[in-house]
Amino acid sequence: MTQSRQLAAIMFTDIVGYTALMEQDEKKAFEILKKNLAIHQSVINEFRGRLIKEMGDGMLASFSTVSDALNAAIEIQNQCNDTKEYKLSIGIHLGEVVFQNGDVFGDAVNVASRIQSLGISGSVLISKKIADEIKNKSEFTTSSLGSFEFKNVNEPIEIFALTNQGLTVPRKSQLQGKLKKGKQKRNLVVAVSIIFLLISTSLVYYNFFTNKRVIRKRITANPVAYEWYTRAEYRITPESPVDLDSAIFFLTKAIEADSTFALAHAELSRAYSIKNYFIDPKGGYNEKAFVEAEKSLYLNPDLAEGIFARAYLNWNFQNKFPHEKTIREYKKAIALNPGMDEAYHQLGVVYLHIGLMDESVAAIKKSLEINPNNKFAAVDVSSGYFFTGHLVDFQRMIELFKATPDQLMSPFRNSQWGAGLIALGQLEDAHKILEAGLKKDSSNLFINSAYAILLATEGDKEGALKKIEFCEKSNLNTGHYHHAVYYLAAAYSILGESEKAVNKLNWVAENGLPNYIYFRDDPLLESLHAYEPYKKLLEELEVSWNKFKLIASE
Question: Residue 60: which H helix or E strand, with range?
Fold first, then answer.
């Protein structure tokens, strides 16, 4: 584990108004993400910096010198303004940080994030430490905005705005970042304190004599545990294995500091589940996720995150994807904590699998409304168009995928892209997408099964059957490979092997993907429409679909 400690200028940037843009025009929003990344990569490299990572619609970067950081910030703002498509706010702080496995840690990172949150469109805000470093550098001009008390920062920090040409200098009335709440009037504080004391005394008395847990804390009272927990926030993501491992480490440390920290147990369960599904399905992480979820709910049976974590880990192949139970558990978690964006996101994913397309889109868009930085939720909106089986939606999905950053395009997404192109008759483009996927991983089952559809469509029966055989010899009884088996059914359908196609579809429906709409309207299954076993399967799926609709409306 490589690690180095050094003084660095840390820069956070964020796209202003990205949430509203996502709601108005998804394709444009993805295109802006790509354009923004390209600008940052070019400018940060020019000024000898290091792009650490994307964080939703924001960026985290570091520089060895303050001058390089400020020059990069000014140039990024200039290039952003030249696009006339979006605006950025930028925050920069100087401090000692630790670089470890491609990531950066330390108080300076937290402070830079808080400073950025204070900014407005076109601004570059800096801490006093940065301002002191450049006070004798005539190429930079600044204006003090006053001192601010930020959340999770011990001391007030004086903030300055760069006033160089082309930058926006915010008025004090515009500054609304992640600040500590202001002090209330003394008499109100006293009154509230007295009331709180009386209530607390009553509850302690009640607990003492009844031995029941009346108050269950969401957040630990242990400051060390809380510090570790905050370091894990925003790192529980399948996008970065390094981030995910860091989150697991930090949450483990939080639990070591306070073993009764229910929320940390719940989040560690979720991190293990993601590790199991996306990265290492043979590493025993599903069992670890189960243990942490149970600990969380033992400590606090009404913890929304614990209920969500348990439902999330149980919705898998081994448990036959219990859709009804999972929907109810996710809804229970949301009722307890309406701000859980990932609960809405995963509820939408379940709806996708069972053919509730409108409900899925609504749930995932609610997730993005709560947290615009949930990039996987944004991609799932695009991916959802695939399951309607409509050609116009295939085209819409493809346009959105073209605008999606490459790091978010998993082999599964690319297999959908390829299958969509095949359905649209764009076979040459389908070859490009799927062959690029095979170059990256020649054994990937999503790509190989989609390639079987392509070969079958082109009349290469021998080639298609070889791809099918390759997939069938692999372990399809895990993860979400019901999607790959569905592709094999489509290939058999195109080859005229109706019985084999329907056998596969029955397996798919029984193992997590009983999507009536998808099965009914997918043009790749058109040759089955007159086949009686297929029509019988659709009748059965329609019954289930109507049942799912009732459950979703509860």
Answer: strand 58-63
Instruction: Answer yes or no: do 47 and 168 share one domain.
Output: yes
d(CA 223, CA 7) in angstroms, rounded, equals: 26
CB-CB contact of 538 with 532 (8 Å):
no
Q: Identify the pLDDT of residue 199.
A: 41
The answer as to whether 349 is a domain residue is no
Shared domain for 520 and 436, answered yes or no, is yes
Q: Would you list the DSSP string of 515-531? A: -HHHHHH-GGGGGGTT-
Q: How many CB atoms lie within 10 A of CB 211?
A: 7
Mean pLDDT of the chain: 87
pLDDT single digits (tens) 380-397: 988 889 999 899 999 999
Record the pTM.
Answer: 0.70
Structure confidence by residue, pLDDT tens digits, 317-349: 888 899 999 999 999 999 999 999 999 999 999
| Closest C-alpha among 38, 473, 478 to residue 488 | 473
Q: Tell me the pairing of strands 124-127 and 103-105.
A: unpaired
Instruction: Mark whether 291 and 383 lie in a shared domain.
Output: no
For residue 311, the Cα-to-chain-centroid distance in whole angstroms is: 18
Same domain, 93 and 205: no
Q: Are residue 450 and residue 396 in the same domain, yes or no?
A: yes
- Give the residue-averaged pLDDT of 259-272: 94
